[in-house]
Amino acid sequence: MNWQSFIFSTLGTAGVYATIALGVVLVYRTNKVLPFHVGALAMLSAYVMSDFWTAQTQTASALLMALATVAVLCAGFGYVMHLLVDRFGARYGHFVGTVITIAATTFLGGVMSLFWQGDVRRISFVEGNVTLFGTQYPADGLLVIAVSAAIIVGVLLAMRVTSIGVQMQAVAANARLAQLRSIPVRTVLLIVWIGSSLLAAAGGIFMATLSSVSLEGSAIGVSAIVAAVIGGLYSMPGAVIGAILLAVGESVVTQFANPRYSQVVPILMLVVLLAIRPSGLSGSAERIGRV
Amino acid sequence: MTISSTLRTDPPAPTAMWKTGWFSAGWKLIVLVAIAACAPLVLGSFGMRVANLGLIMGVSAMALTVLLGHAGLLSLGHAAFMAIGAFTAGVLATNYAVGFLPSLLAAGFAGAIVGVAVALVTVRAYGLYLAIGTFALQYVVELLLTDVEVKLTYAVGMIMPIPSIFGFELDSDTRWWFFNLTCALIIYLGIRWILSGHIARAWISSRDNPTVTTTLGISLLRCRVSVFALTSFVAGLAGALHGYYGSIVQITNYPLHLSIVYVTIVVLGGLGNMLGAVAAAYVILLLPHMLEKLLAVFGVDVMSGGTAMEGIALGTVLVLALLKAPQQTIARLRRLVNV
Fold it and tell me: What ipTM score was computed for the predicted complex, to two decimals?
């Protein structure tokens, strides 16, 4: 493997992690709930996508149909999570909310093994290779890198420019004050859950394009959460940087050591981080709430 | 119910002092044990197997309910501690021919050592960060022990010998039952004894208000280490029991899923409620069988979707228990009736 393909695969992985990690930060900042279910949701969305996308002739309308189906499913799931965590679970605190997302993980895992029985699938959007600066790259991979970069930039910009982005920041900073300033907090929270579900779905579909979708693939949720933790759980650019660091680490281990151990990389990074600097790289001083 | 409201955090009144210690469970516990001792008379071979497995799960859940309920630390790596215990006992019993009771104790201490290590590494991490840390532990332990299993047994798993205590062999479910019952009783009383002392009060106060706890001169580090040492000792011991009872030790028996099962058991049983945890262990253990029977009524093929349905049911039960759905429904119905 030469350095071009090394960078190529690292960028692809980083794109997947960063997309999901943005959703993790979004949910964590506004709800103080750590969404453990993002990995399972990503895989479920990829399974649904693979059902709709390979079954039909690969036309633009079929693609739109498949994407719309996944989007509607994810929005529905986001709504359910919003109901469970913010409406019914609010009185029990954010800690119970986190355990609800763990329950959702088990639930989604059950749904996946019920419908897809542990199939391993791949999604392909564009066949063939593209030559850039004298090196051949798989077109699918380039597409993933481009789209994930667009999504990341789009989300980062949306948080600063659009009114809903600013409202989300307000809710994240102080929900009660935001409510007093007539920001519809519940609607904002609902949009946060739906948005993070869509981001997880996008990450899952990217993952299925780059490598494959399987039950075990839910572990990307762990990587995404670790990426967000490295970034300090409060900062979206931090999460993107965390995702890049993580992807580099995993690529190096895959390249120079046993690929099986690449899944230890996020864990090791996490352990080092927890022991030395629990507040993450961005160093927000806020104390993470106790149980 | 908030977590703090499940437990009395203020010291008991002087007259109530006599009731807090060992004997507070008193006659209820004696009746419970007496009923349990009669179980072999009533239950068949399947029933005895369920009874034994449930009790071992219950012992393990007792540890987690103390960690989560009293110390307020969410561990998603409970299955990992059990796996460490089971593998310690497995290696000692199969490779070094160590006896049953010594290897049980060794399994407990192996669990405790790893628990202390986890506590030391994560001492600066609170709440959700600790949850991620133990989640990570689960992954690492699964990966490492898979390697151990492949190296030592060519991925077959360690076949455990029939345990014997001073020549008395635990070769039937009934004999196992009395042994497990004794173990569970000793561990229950032991934990209760610890809970009635000052160490547990320190845990509770570190859970409710770490700043005040430090101000009172209580070391948070010591709290964290002691509660992890105790609970992972019990978890390791329960893992070894589980390995001996199932007569095989395999890493596939201790997946992340199992850790979530234990969290469900603890939430269902009520945080910090040890007898509740044992009861909930039986409910969760029987859940797949109940589902099987229920699905058979509707003519659903169980073989294909059994584990999948279990996951779905487990998630649902956990959410309902967390949101206290039954209590909420009853309260709502009451309001309806009153109107």
Answer: 0.80
